[in-house]
Amino acid sequence: MKKVITYGTFDLLHVGHINLLRRARELGDYLVVALSSDEFNAIKNKKAYYPYEDRKIILEAIKYVDEVIPEYTWEQKIDDVKNHNIDVFVMGDDWKGKFDFLKDYCEVVYLSRTEGISTTKIKCDLKAKDSE
Ligand code: C2G
Does the annotation count 46 as an active-site position? Predict the structure, then answer.
């Protein structure tokens, strides 16, 4: 079984996330998503709208996702790849090059981001609508 892993906050789920998860899953037979904890989001200077537990339930409902584990630190990726017998590490190409150190442990694939959509854009658009 070819196992794939990807990491992220996945807040306010949108087609960019789904496009990433679908293509990541297509690279193997089993997709693990390492979901940023609320505490790790604070380290990433992100404030998710949904708390970790809700984001986890939402991700687990997606047919491309086989398992969700928590992401607590920047440094856990090598252990995750080893402990979960991961064959392929996948991230959107806004991260291109940032995780090439994992090439010693698994295949590293950066997939193109979906243009025109982001959680930040959703929040801005909703705020703008509110003030219309
Ligand atoms: N993504 C995408 N297209 C978009 C928006 C996001 O392909 N329009 C991808 C990102 O490139 C990332 C994944 O969806 O691979 C999750 O995005 P975020 O939740 O924003 O994840 P991020 O905060 O980048 O966390 O250790 C890695 C970090 O946890 C990554």
Answer: yes
